[in-house]
Amino acid sequence: MKLVEEIKALRGSHRYIVVFVLVLAIIMVSIALPPDDAGRGVVMVALSALTLFVAVYVSGTNAWTPRIVAGLVVFAAFAAAVTWLVPGIKDEVGVATRLVVLSVVLVLPFVIGGGAMRAMKEDGVTLGVVFGAIAIYLLIAIAFAVTYAIIGDVESKPFFAGGGTTDFDAFPEFMYFSVITQSTVGYGDLVPVTGPGRAFASAQALMGQLYLVSVVAVVVGNFGRGTQRQRDMERKRLKSIQEEVTQLQSDDAPSKTDDKDEGEG
Q1: 135 within 8 A of 23, measured Cβ to Cβ
Q2: CB of 243 within 8 A of CB of 140?
Q3: 3-state class (DSSP) for residue 215
């Protein structure tokens, strides 16, 4: 019963720490699962769908739900059809799975961002908003990882130097490469050799750093400051208190003068 009440309390609460944990789980699971695990695609789709559901639930965006579900169903059917019709794709099921995951990952920032904007208007920058911004940062890494995997399926030559695999089994390497690229660690153990791979890797390194120094920095810098309306009301309240103190001091001044005159008389 208590668990049910806590779950109900999450609705529209903007506690994006739950979304952050799920997004982090997607990254860790996709890297940790064995390359030959046949159920990895199912796990990725299930985790992505769960993250989207939780994000919509926490954000309280009821109007988004039917549109998101309808859009994802249409996109999934379209992706499956395209992968079967386009010649040269090595793993049709794998590419269709990745396209579905990519669509979910691209929708999530809009759900989280919209909810975070409403939360900031109501309560200012809270801890939930901060975790929401960081969750979007991690979603960028997932989106690029899926993009790299799709490029590896479409390209005829290996994505990485050294003749690495280009099939669905290489997805842990794509996710790992995406994370170290976005964090600008650059271990050098995986290096893209294709033109599209290098282009997207360069774009990811720039986007990741620009997002940190702009969006995350602004959000963290305003953490706990409340909304602009709340700050304006606080300034008015302090000004009103100062005016009352000044008025009391001015009212006390004549009485002190009168007491002094009476004493001298």
Answers
A1: yes
A2: no
A3: helix
* DSSP letter (8 states) at residue 192: B
Rounded to whole angstroms, how far apart are CA atoms 216 and 107? 19
Round to whole Å and give the CA distance between 175 and 179: 6
Whole-number Å distance between alpha carbons of 165 and 157: 9
Least Cα distance to 49 among 83, 30, 26 occurs for: 26
Question: Rounded to 10 degrees, what is the CA torsion of 188, 193, 194, 198?
Answer: 30
CA atoms of 251 and 63, how far apart (whole Å)? 59
Q: What is the rounded CA–CA span in Å between residue 104 and residue 97?
A: 11
Q: For residue 256, give the amino acid letter.
A: K
Write down the pLDDT at residue 209.
Answer: 92
Tell me which residue of 139, 127, 104, 110 sits closest to 119, measured CA to CA: 127
pLDDT at 167: 46
Predicted model pTM: 0.76
110 burial (CB, 10 Å; 0-12 / 13-18 / 19+) is: middle
The rounded average pLDDT for each run of 10 residues, N- to C-terminus, in the chain (265 residues) is 67 82 91 70 82 84 63 67 59 69 85 84 83 93 91 81 57 90 86 90 93 89 67 65 72 56 52
Distance CA 106, CA 252 (A): 66
CA-CA distance, 35 to 49, in Å (whole number)? 22
Q: How many CB atoms lie within 10 A of CB 55?
A: 29
